[in-house]
């Protein structure tokens, strides 16, 4: 499935950047709206970009973010689908 990068705003106007797998850009925008975000930009992620980037192709995942994601996924693995947990983590990272 294709991977898209996006920028969206919440109801307070704070923006988030993230990465999402979806059939097409329209599906990404629909999911963001379902999650109460307003899509600003949705674009296909380049083939060269690492799957571990958050917030753009040139940024890298910080070690503390990777540790936080691992702990969060471990704690939530029994109660939250992994796609929701990953989306939640991306939002948390984009706020820091």
What's the arrangement of secondary structure elements?
Elements: E1 3-9, E2 15-21, H1 25-34, E3 38-44, H2 63-76, H3 82-95
Antiparallel strand pairs: 1-2, 1-3
Helix pairs in contact: 2-3
Written account of the structure:
The protein is of the alpha+beta class. It has one domain (3-95). The chain is 40% helix and 22% strand. The chain has helices at residues 25-34, 63-76, 82-95; strands spanning 3-9, 15-21, 38-44. The protein has a three-stranded antiparallel beta sheet with strand order 2-1-3. Strand 1 (3-9) and strand 2 (15-21) form a beta hairpin. Helix 2 runs antiparallel to helix 3. The longest helix has 14 residues, at 63-76. Residues 50-58 have low confidence and may be disordered.
């Amino acid at each position: 499935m294709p991977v898209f990068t996006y920028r969206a705003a919440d109801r307070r106007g704070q923006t988030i950047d993230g990465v999402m797998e979806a059939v097409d850009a329209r599906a990404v925008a629909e999911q963001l709206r379902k999650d109460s975000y307003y899509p600003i930009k949705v674009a296909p992620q380049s083939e060269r970009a690492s799957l571990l980037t958050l917030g753009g192709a040139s940024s890298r995942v910080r070690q503390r973010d990777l540790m936080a994601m691992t702990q969060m996924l471990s704690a939530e693995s029994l109660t939250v689908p992994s796609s929701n947990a990953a989306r939640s983590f991306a939002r948390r990272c984009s706020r820091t």
